[in-house]
Amino acid sequence: MKQKTIYTCQQCGYQSPKWLGKCPDCQKWNTLAEEAIVLTRGKGRSPVPAGKPQRLHEVAGTEEDRIRCGIAEFDRVLGGGVVPGSFALIGGDPGIGKSTLLLQSIARLAESAPALYVTAEESTRQVKLRAERLGVAAKDLFLLAETSLEAILERVRELGPGFLVVDSIQTIFTSALESAPGSVSQVRECAGRLMQVAKGDGIPTFIVGHVTKDGSIAGPRMLEHMVDTVLYFEGDAGHPYRILRAVKNRFGSTNEIGVFEMKESGLAEVANPSELFLAERPEGAAGSAVVSSLEGSRPILVELQALVSGSSFGTPRRTTIGIDHNRVSLLVAVLEKKVGLSLLSQDVFLNVAGGVRLDEPAADLGVIAALASSHLNRPLPPRTIVFGEVGLAGEVRAVSRPELRINEAARLGFDRCLLPAGNLKNLEPPPGIALVGVRSAEEALEGMFE
Q1: 3-state SS string over 330-367?
Q2: What is the DSSP letter of 56?
Q3: Which range, of 270-274, 290-294, 420-424, 434-438, averages the lowest pLDDT?
Q4: Structural contact between residues 155 and 195, judged by C-beta atoms closer than 8 angstroms
């Protein structure tokens, strides 16, 4: 047996026989770490018999029975519940609530089948204290404080749990490799072995992943390709609200989000996030606009706050929180060129209240409304909602699912809605709300301040 040293990038998995300051693959600096690998001489492993090919119509295509954990927001993001044999990865900033969410969820699932919670970063006593604070008292929830992959798999074979949680994958190591825990080779090998257990024995498995400074899950990118579902737990330290978002889901949509509120007793579901995000909206304040955003099948009403003021520097500032910076700069240019508002020499600050992030183009009209309201120092009507996509020519384009957005606004007491004229076709509004169709940004501003 011959030992060899190789340098592996801890971000992308690139390998080099010598140390490099900059990874040629992912262009990151100081990410190559020395790892010892073992090469065995001889014929190697015996070949594994190949499976027998099947015709497509001969493959059983029955729908998987989903297991609901009892937390509706968590089930929504997963696509309706936990699929047997699924392999999910959840990541988020330190202290955001990943372990709390999984402990609450696995306790509910343990009511239907025994569950094993592997804590590789904390002792069982620490997990017990958290469970008492959360009010978790599941009879068939087993705790295991272990970092060795071989020991974990042995306990899984002995217990035969219905569900498995590993917290976290970066602290698990296998004795088959000599590299340190958390390295690319260790994370890849441990995740591969856990995936075989999940698929082979049909055990739904959840693993927790650390995140890097830029917010992505640490370790090789291959880790996200191996799992069935990738969940990100997001939130602002200054707000008690947390958003669970799926960026990959083989068993459901990636557009759904779950909203939680962090309380002393743990994470509480927010069944009506629109009402929560608008609870502290100031009345009669210039620069405030309510926009309807669609997250999957759920419409959410959020407040956009804009502040436009004279710049004391040669280059005006453009500061945004919760929305794409480049998109806001584009809309400022549209207001300057197509509407005639002098904004290019002004400092522009835009914030999405409540810590929510807006990604869809339907928020464009709300951004324009908030910016114009602040610049003109004229508040919008308090019960008016806007949504629509704005193009470079100043036109307002139609968006998807307008009926869901309008019904949510009417339910919360809004009586006026500005929307693209293209969405008015075959649209029956609910009673109590008036629809105003607009075709351009200039026409929209005229309708807002009537």
Answers
A1: HHHHHHHHHHCCCCCCEEEEEEECCCCCECCHHHHHHH
A2: G
A3: 270-274
A4: no
Q: pLDDT tens across 359-408, in order?
A: 899 999 999 999 999 999 999 998 999 999 999 999 999 999 999 999 99
Q: What is the DSSP string of 252-265?
A: S-SS-EEEEEEETT
Give Cα 25 to chain centroid, integer Å: 26
Helical H segments across 249-303, by residue range: 273-277
Task: Report CA dihedral (61, 62, 68, 69) to the nearest 10 degrees.
Answer: -60
- Residues ≥6 apart with Cβ < 8 Å to 359: 324
118 near 165, Cβ under 8 Å?
yes
Q: Please, which residues have CB within 8 angstroms of residue 289's CB and are 6 or more apart in sequence?
A: 303, 304, 306, 366, 367, 369, 370, 373, 380, 386
Q: Domain residues for 371?
A: 276-448
- Same domain as 376, residue 248: no
- Beta strand segments in 236-338, E: 241-249, 257-263, 266-269, 288-295, 298-310, 318-321
Whether residue 46 is contained in a domain is answered as no
Q: Report strand pairing: 241-249 vs 229-235.
A: antiparallel
Q: What total number of domains does the chain contain?
A: 3
Q: Is residue 202 part of a domain?
A: yes
* Distance of alpha carbon 64 from the chain centroid: 24
| 223 and 164 within one domain | yes
Same domain, yes or no, for 426 and 382? yes
For residues 86 and 8, membership in a common domain is answered with: no
Separation of alpha carbons 243 and 368, rounded Å? 26
429 part of a folded domain: yes
| Ramachandran angles phi, psi of 32, nearest 5° | -85, 125
pTM of the entire predicted model: 0.77
Q: How does strand 115-119 pair with strand 241-249?
A: unpaired
Domain assignment present for 56 = no
